[in-house]
Amino acid sequence: MAINSLTTAYIGVGSNLSDPIKQVNMAITALKTLANSQVTAVSSIYGSKPMGPQDQPDYINAVVELQTSLMPLALLDALQAIENKAGRVRKENRWGARILDLDILLFGQQVIDNERLTIPHYGMKLREFVLLPLAEIAPRLCLPDGDNIATLAQNIPDNDLKKLIF
Ligand code: ROI
What we know:
Blueprint: E1 7-15, H1 20-32, E2 37-42, E3 45-48, E4 59-68, H2 72-85, E5 101-107, E6 112-113, E7 118-119, H3 128-137, H4 149-155, E8 162-165
Antiparallel strand pairs: 1-4, 1-5, 2-4, 3-4, 3-8, 6-7
Helix pairs in contact: 3-4
The structure holds 7,8-dihydro-7,7-dimethyl-6-hydroxypterin.
7,8-dihydro-7,7-dimethyl-6-hydroxypterin binds at residues 14, 48-52, 59, 61, 95, 101, 129.
């Protein structure tokens, strides 16, 4: 890849603790100030039922599109710094409630699999709270395996996902 070329990355944003709408809006604001990156689209804010244990609050979810010249691990570090600033405590149970979750869903058409990163995000095709916001901002997008986002989004049960803020 050429030095300084831009990659289109998609970030999944989720929260179900400590005023989740505020957390998601603060995360979007933080992404807009990310070094070497520019936010080019933000989905609506959605309310979603928890995937995993049901004894936790509903989630707020959104997806952000950015153009970045950061390498994937540098982007991951930057996202984890935003999560930590929001007060996220690591080591909490993997499927439990969280103040802020920022996941790299896609990084261009790259397939990455190492101990810190799996891209495309391993669960994205099964998550209505990822596919529907993503299809809203990037309906023509295809995954590296050729699957089309709009088709995936049409075929997933919506599990009562609600668009809250346009
Ligand atoms: N469920 C929903 N609805 N939204 C999330 O962002 C989310 N994140 C998670 C788990 C615990 C899998 N469940 C979720 O990490």
